[in-house]
Amino acid sequence: MANESRPCPCDIGDRFDYGGRGREVQVEHIKAYVCKPPASTDKAVIVIHDIFGWQLPNTRYMADMLTTNGYIAICPDFFVGQEAWKPSNDWASFDDWLKTRNAGKIEKEVDVILKYLSEQCGAKKIGVIGFCWGGAAVQHLMLKNPHLKTGVSLYGVIRFFEDRSSLLHPTFFIFAEKDDYIPLEQVTILEQKLKQNCKVDYEVKIYPGQTHGFVHRKREDINPQDKPYIEEGRKDMINWLNKYL
């Protein structure tokens, strides 16, 4: 189970020294980071950040990576102006902080972003990816939003939506073998529930030796043995999006 002295379901890992290739825009009441490929496309991906917020360089790097693969990528501020979590914050206050940032209450923002992508960017096929808190949000959206085509949940916090598995759209779940915040027993139960209840294509994949946050972390410079799995996770994510968008 989660370490109660650090109840955070996320780990910032190693930070990218990264400025981003996109730009910040205001979409109705939401600020967002947008990156567009040079060639015109009708495919877009909404990127849902982790607890460290929409300005985290690591998350923007992933948005840019999607764009280099031909997608319009947008990372909105799903905390809508509320402060992101900081590693220096007092972990004792984390649960109270989290109560005002519910991964299951983002429909209003998602609708605004879908409208922007459709009307301002010409997007017709839209998917979603998310990390940790955002990964849980992806699972939530895959259960109920009819306008999204597919999703990739990266180490999404299972306990947020553990009783819900009747997905509407193809969904890929990425987990780390040595995740301190998502025990493998939870992943096994999720797989069982998906097998029983899910009528669409899905995949659950566990990456050996990896820890929470590995796909959007810059660990390959420090731990070369992790590099193949980080690259595999990113490639798998892109391949899934390519298949369903």
UniProtKB/TrEMBL annotation:
Sorted UniProt keywords: Cytoplasm
Keyword Cytoplasm tagged: yes
Leader sequence residues: none
Coiled coil: none
Location of this chain's protein in the cell: Cytoplasm, Cytosol
InterPro entries: AB_hydrolase_fold, CMBL, Dienelactn_hydro
Keyword hit for ATP-binding: no
Domain Dienelactone hydrolase positions: 30-245
One GO cellular component term noted in the UniProt record for this chain: cytosol
Domain of life where this protein originates: Eukaryota
GO molecular function annotations of the record: hydrolase activity
Family (UniProt): Belongs to the dienelactone hydrolase family.
The protein's name: Carboxymethylenebutenolidase homolog
Gene: Cmbl_1
